[in-house]
Design brief:
Elements: H1 2-9, H2 21-24, E1 35-38, E2 43-48, E3 60-65, E4 71-72, H3 81-102, H4 107-136, H5 142-211, H6 219-222, H7 225-249
Antiparallel strand pairs: 1-2, 2-3, 3-4
Helix pairs in contact: 3-4, 3-5, 4-5, 5-7
Length: 251
């Protein structure tokens, strides 16, 4: 009676799974992490569906090896075909993200991949651990061994995807920093040249402002217009030479 009531409280188990009490005692109403539970004569493999972006909850998929040694999937079908299809979905998700990393449209898209690649890598790693546990107690099952080996390849691919996404983000940040540095250097060069032009015309502007005030200017000063003009330009050239010597030539 206790086993029956416990079975009714476990909502994630398929209806056709009539587990032995040794397995029922190891599970609760929540599926928990990916793992393989060992009973007296049976195995229960709990794995997770491919994680979805922005969804913290995980959808459990359950596979049961009965006393007679046969496996049943979460949809109550015989065999491990459901587990193989799950690995297909993991592979499709990784391939989709790898295509984005190879030709990214922008940092936002790469960041989205990097953010999802972390739980994807963690999920494939835990999936491999669960399959290792299952194969350790069903080591005569060649199909399970092949699925375990394939999960190991997916784990490596997911880890590489996560590291590649981080590298692409770091490269884009470095590239943006270089572009900003080049732009700042160009602005500094333009500002320096404008300051040189201002310095060149500063004496002439000062003399023009002094002599252009509304005061009576002596006649002899008026006759020296070109001399004063050339003198202002000469002072401007002296300022340019002095500034150029201070900034580079006089080191």
């Amino acid at each position: 009676m206790g086993a029956v009531s416990a079975r009714l409280d476990i909502g994630f188990l398929p209806k056709g799974f009539d587990l032995e009490p040794e397995l029922l005692d190891q599970i609760s109403a929540r599926s928990g992490n990916q793992r393989c539970l060992i009973g007296h004569d049976e195995l229960l493999l709990i794995v997770h569906e491919v994680p979805q972006p922005g969804v913290p909850e995980r959808e459990p998929l359950v596979f049961w090896r009965t006393l007679r040694g046969g496996w049943f999937g979460h949809d109550s079908t015989k065999g491990l075909g459901g587990l193989s299809r799950l690995l297909d979905r993991y592979q499709a998700q990784i391939d989709e993200y790898e295509a984005v990393i190879d030709e990214p449209d922008g940092a936002a898209e790469v960041f989205k991949v990097a953010r999802h690649a972390a739980p994807l890598a963690r999920s494939t790693r835990n999936l491999l651990g669960a399959l290792d546990q299952a194969y350790g107690h069903d080591d005569d099952n060649r199909e399970l061994m092949a699925l375990r080996d394939r999960a190991r390849e997916l784990e490596r691919a997911a880890e590489l995807l996560f590291h590649d996404a981080k590298l692409v983000l770091e490269f884009q940040q470095a590239e943006n920093a270089e572009d900003q540095q080049e732009a700042a250097e160009r602005l500094n060069t333009i500002a320096f040249r404008l300051n040189l032009m201002a310095g060149f015309f500063l004496p002439l502007v000062g003399i023009g402002a002094l002599l252009g005030m509304n005061v009576d200017i002596p006649e002899f000063v008026q006759s020296w217009f070109w001399g004063i003009f050339c003198g202002g330009l000469g002072l401007g050239m002296a300022v340019l030479l002095m500034v150029g010597w201070k900034t580079g030539g006089g080191k």
